Amino acid sequence: MEEASHRLTLEGIQKRVADHYQLRHSDMQSKRRPNAIAFPRQIAMYLSRQLTRHSLQEIGEAFGGRDHGTVIHACKTVENMMETDESVRGSVNFLKAQLSK
């Protein structure tokens, strides 16, 4: 996994998650907040935090200039959802496996 962290970019994670949820890549950075966009964006932030060495600040910037608190909130939200919702856990694990290849 160490090698993967050097190849993985925040943009690459955004594109993969956007494809998975059939969104436009631009939705990952948009200010729009319907749940159909916001939750996949949170998943992308969570994966960015897990799979790269970028700071909270850098991740927030890549997602439309959000602050580090938004990234922390996104990570906590996704972690909580993974604990209670098997489909979310499955999706996140699937995406993580795809990105780690």
Please provide a written account of the structure.
The chain has 101 residues and is mainly α. It has a single domain, classed as Chromosomal Replication Initiator Protein Dnaa, Chain: A (Orthogonal Bundle). 72% of the residues lie in helices and 0% in strands. The chain contains six helices and no strands. The protein has helices at 2-7, 10-20, 35-51, 56-62, 68-84, 86-100. Helix 2 packs across helix 3, helix 4 crosses helix 5 (68-84) and helix 5 crosses helix 6 (86-100). It starts with a helix and ends with a helix. Mean pLDDT is 94; it is low at 1-5.
What descriptors fit this protein?
disordered N terminus, globular, single chain, Chromosomal Replication Initiator Protein Dnaa, Chain: A, mainly alpha, 101 residues, 6 helices
